[in-house]
């Protein structure tokens, strides 16, 4: 009742209540009852990330009437965050993002309680995540998204409606961004959509070495090939401007040779340090759309993204374009599907070549894979004793060395995603 009562006391929430108290074509009488109005104030919502998107999300949720918000972020504030992460001041540099952001919004919006957690999401178990009604992610890490997605899908118990936690995910890169909503087990999950995000290091070495097509290829060439050949300094320090300048000049010369434009100092720094460019206004647009979806899901005031269209893309780098579409759930998704998927491989590959391919395959992106066939462990990177036992398999060919055949099933796991099992049946080409 807190919000409803507060609205009688003060006109602060009158505009928000106007939307919530008006019965429209999409809600029912029960949605606009006093009892229903109180559900927003009582809803517990989790925000993952207190960075560029997270600052916006926390501010918007608090100003949208959410009263009980938790936020997780393990990072501390860096001076380079201050141009867009507006809840932080220069005097906050070095402090925890979650803590500072929570305190700032609490002070600004009366009656809101924000609980910060200065840690990794992996440090909490299902009991922790079970207490929330909605999870909103403002992350720049694919790995963290995959982890929370798998956790929320695993938590769903068909006999308990409360175990289903809608996941709202925002992401930006420069002038581009996306907002998507996942109803775990019911609609396409993050893992179903993983192939939309090609791994960043997926440019084959031969492209870098022979015919670069993009400014990034020239920078990676300078970073990986030219640096190794010329060794201008004993070791590369990515924070040393002299080192970055050396790479920038090498990349620029190569770009000019191939008629490629766009190599700049800041792009060089971004590629080498793997920095995703971030623009305050794109973050604001995407965070705002995430928060409106949260408000609609929490209040039923209007239909949200989800069961039909579930993905909103925003493109701002060539004028403006937005598009909303439905990503289909995949039957062979390792998180929410239940069938093995085909894996096309060359029978003459060694096991090592197969495992290396898992790192760059867009729908896998695994760095430390273990692999099993039938009941036999082919390779496990941990613990050391098993690694030693299975290491000789790495150099064996799939067919002749290991005796694998087309349609054999293999199971792949990775310690980064302990709840995920990737099942494949081999298809030899
Ligand atoms: Zn899925």
Automatic annotation (TrEMBL):
Metal-binding in keyword set: no
Q: Where is the E2 binding domain?
A: 343-429
**Pathway(s) where this gene product acts:** Protein modification; protein neddylation
Give a GO molecular function annotation for the protein. Answer: ATP binding
Say which enzyme class the record assigns.
Answer: ligase
**So what EC number does this one have?**
6.2.1.64
Keywords, alphabetical = ATP-binding, Ligase, Nucleotide-binding, Ubl conjugation pathway
Look up keyword Iron-sulfur and say if it applies.
Answer: no
For this chain's UniProt record, which GO biological process terms are given? protein neddylation
Q: Which InterPro entries match?
A: E2-binding (IPR014929), ThiF/MoeB/HesA (IPR045886), ThiF_NAD_FAD-bd (IPR000594), Ub_act_enz_dom_a_sf (IPR023318), Uba3_N (IPR030468), Ubiquitin-activating_enz (IPR035985)
User: Can you state which reaction this protein catalyses?
Assistant: ATP + [NEDD8 protein] + [E1 NEDD8-activating enzyme]-L-cysteine = AMP + diphosphate + [E1 NEDD8-activating enzyme]-S-[NEDD8 protein]-yl-L-cysteine
Family label: Belongs to the ubiquitin-activating E1 family. UBA3 subfamily.
Q: Which PANTHER family does the entry link to?
A: NEDD8-ACTIVATING ENZYME E1 CATALYTIC SUBUNIT, UBIQUITIN-ACTIVATING ENZYME E1
Name this polypeptide is given: NEDD8-activating enzyme E1 catalytic subunit
Annotated source species: Monosporascus ibericus
